[in-house]
Amino acid sequence: MSPGGSLKLCMFTPRDLQLERGWPGILEGETVVQVAAQTLQSFFTGGGTARRHAEYALADVDFRAPVLHPPSVRDFYAFEQHVKTARAARGLEVPPEWYELPVFYFSNPAAIYGPGDEIPHPPDTNELDYELEVAAIIGAEGRIGGFTILNDWSARDLQRAEMKVGLGPSKGKDFATSVGPIVVTPDEFDGTSGTMLARVNGEERSRGKLADMHHSWEAIVAHAARNTRLLPGDVLGSGTVGTGCILEHGDGRWLQRGDVVELEVDGIGILRNRVV
Question: Which band of pLDDT confidence, cut at 50, 70 and 90, is reported for residue 5?
Answer without folding.
Answer: low
